[in-house]
Specification:
This protein is mainly alpha-helical. It contains 10 helices and 5 strands. The chain is elongated.
């Protein structure tokens, strides 16, 4: 799907991608296949190509790297992925370790405990994991494991935000949600 979302519009514009599989795989790691994010990234790549002004018809991995290093694009990606997520889901995304593809629910619980949420109700954690699946953030795997889909997301968060501050803000939101639900 991502291949079609990337390659077909570029081909219609007579723009070609050098090492297309590598570029498209990287776009998938960032976007998790979310069409809006794919479109934002491709638009950013075209902007990079335009600013370069040399070869107006050949994109490569450097265009992708420059586009995704722009803070405005990173903010749009985070806003799109976080979309309708509740505070607990956002906290899970913030605590997911960079470079870690799989976590069990028990590991997610430990990460939440490390930021001051020692007793998340198990049914709420299960429901939030299902929500993260719906948001294309994780994919369920065997043995209660979750697989991170947008592998680049933790790195984007590390780069663009003060994670500890963001965690504190969203933890307060979670606590307010829990008081309101109780």
């Amino acid at each position: 799907v991502v291949h079609r979302l990337v390659a077909e519009p570029f081909e219609m514009l007579n723009i070609w991608i050098e090492q297309s599989e590598q570029v498209i795989n990287r776009i998938y790691q960032i976007s998790a296949g979310h069409p809006n994010i794919v479109q934002m990234i491709c638009q950013g790549m075209v902007q990079e190509l335009d600013e370069e002004g040399q070869n107006l018809s050949l994109l490569n991995i450097e265009h992708l790297d420059r586009a995704t290093s722009r803070r405005t694009l990173q903010e749009e990606i985070v806003a799109t992925i976080w979309g309708q997520m509740n505070a607990l889901a956002k906290l899970i995304t913030l605590t997911w370790p960079e470079g870690e593809r799989f976590l069990t629910l028990a590991q997610v619980e430990q990460l939440l405990g490390a930021i001051g949420l020692p007793s998340v109700p198990p049914e709420l954690l299960e429901r939030t994991a299902k929500d993260l699946e719906l948001y294309c953030f994780v994919r369920p795997r065997e043995h209660d494991r979750l697989e991170l889909i947008p592998m680049a997301f933790p790195a984007i968060l590390d780069f663009m935000t003060d994670k500890q501050r963001q965690i504190a803000i969203i933890r307060r939101q979670y606590e307010a949600e829990m008081r309101g639900a109780g």
